[in-house]
Specification:
alpha+beta, eight-stranded mixed beta sheet, five-stranded mixed beta sheet, 13 strands, binds ligand MTE
């Protein structure tokens, strides 16, 4: 990916995107794939228009700006500062990109990103994102259903969990030279969480290719869980019998559990989770209350019936 390949005409300014969205909502039109002119706002990877349709799962809230979403990031492989990923993630080479499918399924193997994406219709999915650090954003992802992808590999009856891994390459990801986490970054979901229609793999933002700092070329998005579950730059997806260990759990098991469902009633040992700061609303705006399952209770609460969410945090 070469930064000098970006043409201003290939970038949609978020104000254009939002007006287009309003227009499409009014007219009921579905496709958001048209090319519109706008402002180049970043320069790390090739930004292309993606061919998308609107999703019925989107929230009606107004998304944060492209700038907020691409300059205030957590991606420890590129440093611990919020602006480090935007500054340093251009060293990640995202093309070609291979994803290994392994474990309890009939069709394991190595797949090129193009083959992973080929049969899927990309959707614009506007989701709330609630970080465990008690801030939140609204993000217009471009993605597709993880369930639709997983079914293609024919998981067998032993597959109870899905594990994910990020690339491990300290040359491309210099933050991995420090042992702030156990590398590679690992995450996991139960099979029913992975198969839930709200769970997506994202390849874009604002109708454009995902910038490296947001987890290019392929990242998970699970909107009812704290942001750290949404693992970036995925190179392996594995079906397993046993609950996989995650990087955050391995580093600080008392603070970060496997489930990590957004829950205003269960505090982090070092801070409250009852409220959150909405990024982009200014530092002096009052914090807003955090919603159970980040506002997606109607859709996902049934996944946890009978489970003690205090113990299974
Ligand atoms: N994935 C990897 N590989 N490395 C990370 O450090 N940070 C997580 C998650 N995925 C992280 C990651 C955290 S803590 C959050 S809040 C979200 O990514 C942030 O996603 P965003 O930067 O696109 O908002």
């Amino acid at each position: 990916m070469k930064s000098n390949q970006i043409k201003p005409s290939e970038i949609t300014d978020e104000s254009v995107y939002l007006k287009r969205r309003e227009f499409l909502q009014l007219t009921g039109a579905a496709s958001l794939g048209a090319t519109l002119t706008g402002l180049p706002d970043r320069a790390t990877a090739e930004i292309k228009n993606l061919n998308t349709i609107a999703s019925k799962y989107s929230t009606s809230q107004t998304p944060n700006s492209w700038k907020d979403i691409t300059t205030y990031n957590n991606f420890y492989e590129f440093g611990l500062g919020k602006d480090d990923p935007e500054r340093y993630a251009s060293s990640l080479i995202t093309d070609p990109w291979k994803v290994t499918i392994s474990g309890e399924c009939d069709k394991p193997g190595d797949y090129l990103l193009e083959d992973i994406l080929a049969p899927h219709q990309l959707e614009d999915r506007i989701y709330r994102l609630r970080c465990v650090e008690a801030w939140s954003m609204v993000v217009p992802w471009v993605g597709f259903s993880l369930a639709d992808l997983l079914k293609r590999f024919k998981p067998n009856s032993k597959a109870k969990y899905v594990a994910f891994k990020t690339l491990h390459d300290p040359m491309q990801m210099p933050g991995q030279r420090r042992r702030v986490l156990r590398w590679p970054y690992r995450e996991g979901l139960t099979m029913s969480e992975a198969m839930h229609p709200l769970t997506i793999l994202a390849v874009g933002l604002y109708g454009k290719t995902l910038p490296n700092q947001n987890g290019a070329p392929l990242r998970l998005v699970v909107p009812w869980k704290y942001g750290f579950k949404s693992i970036k730059s995925i190179i392996e997806i594995s079906f397993s019998k046993k609950q996989p260990r995650t990087s955050w759990e391995m580093s600080a098991p008392r603070e970060y559990g496997f489930y990590a469902n957004v829950n205003p009633e269960v505090d982090h040992p070092r801070w409250s989770q009852a409220r959150e700061r909405a990024i982009g609303k200014g530092l002096f705006t009052a914090k807003q209350p955090t919603l159970m399952f980040n506002g997606y209770s109607d859709e996902v609460a049934s996944l946890y019936s009978g489970l003690d969410l205090r113990r299974n945090y």
